[in-house]
Amino acid sequence: MDGMRHVRLSVQGKVQGVWFRASAKETADQLGVKGWVKNLPEGGVEIDAWGGAEAVESFIGWCSHGPPGARVTRTDIKELGQGAGPQDFLIVR
Length: 93
Description:
This protein is of the alpha+beta class.
């Protein structure tokens, strides 16, 4: 089993109004990644993702392009500590 990884992502581009949050939740659920996703006032999306290192890496890969209709121009990744993570993946409104 791979180690755990906890990251905070800032995704920029055309990522609001294209089902990015709902698709991120679906993808996270499929990969077993926990955390949350929310829209940011300036038009980007922020994501907190926690889980197995390989699953989180796959999720980051998905976030770099998003769902059909999205146009991701930049993804910033901040590594966070490996403390106990969330138990679910939520869409924060």
